[in-house]
Amino acid sequence: MASTYIQIRTDEEDKKEASEILKALGTNLSAVLNMTIKQIILQKRIPFDVALPAETAPSTRTLDVAASMSMENMPLDQEGLQSLEKFSRKTPSEQEQEIEDLKNMYRLKEKQHA
Asked: Are 84 and 76 a contacting pair, CB within 8 Å?
């Protein structure tokens, strides 16, 4: 099997950090890139998920809630969408605690304005 040379451009810090991680794992960038190429051939696809980070890609559930709120004349801006997405990723007990915290905050504000 004849070898060929591949040259890529990448951020210097990314290369350094990845190399350190791979060294700790007992391998190196060249070996991992060769494994990736072999997996592309075997699987006939990119061998890992390629997606936007969750923070920039709201879930379908979040978009459904936002659409419902908009229909009720309560549209969400980008910050509201991010808050809703963050909330939806919490455990049920964390959600309950956040709801209680918000209720207490609003009760305190009502007392201050009364």
From this structure: yes
Task: Give dist(CA 17, CA 20) in Å, integer.
Answer: 5
CA distance 107 to 114: 11
Tens digit of pLDDT for each residue in 1-24? Answer: 789 999 999 999 999 999 999 999
Count Cβ atoms below 10 Å from residue 69 Cβ, excluding itself. Answer: 14
Distance (Å, whole) CA 110 – CA 50:
47
Asked whether the whole model's pTM tops 0.85, one would answer no
Residue type, 105: M
- What DSSP character marks residue 10? -
Q: CA nearest 62: which of 86, 33, 34, 98?
A: 86
DSSP state, residue 2:
-
